[in-house]
Amino acid sequence: KLHHLIQNFLFYTNLECAIADPSQLFALQQQRVVYPSNVIGDAALQAAHRAERQADLRLDLKDVILPMAELHLQKLVAELVDNAFQYSEPGTPVSVSSQIETLAEGLLYTLTISDRGRGMTSEQITNLTADLLHPPSPLEVKGYASTKPGLGWAIAQRLTTLHHGKLAIHSVPKQYTTVQIRFPILAIVLPAPSESPSDALSAAL
Q: CA-CA distance, 14 to 12, in Å (whole number)?
């Protein structure tokens, strides 16, 4: 756990430094993920392996071209799926799915991560959302994890905002938590020719 906290501290600090540099920020926002199902599926599989809960993972993913860095998508999924496993019991499902939606904002890629675990009250969601609207500065981040819900949430929110997405949390105590992230789509692509994460998961069981 300490190692993960140190990794997140370094990742967040480096991310904030990159965002503060106009040239680095521009370069980050020009990156693309062509087959996000592979990136999302691999990150979710690794999280399931860390939790020793491969059998609990459910994947249902679509492919598009997303305007974000592959490393950032991987980190975003890893943090949220790690949380889903951490706050739910072995033997209960953790679902990672995506779909293409047409909303008022245009064509969007909706990534949904759900667990059947501890859940949160509306007050807890309100407090968490308020914290995420004011992410820590690099100078504040060291003490953030001990006083706030967790640096992983702050990283997920920061990455979502950086790539023009929106994050929403829905939860019922002792029933479920669902995190939805919507990103703008650059284009829809054909399924990747390589083995899908779902096939890899089946082969691993």
A: 5
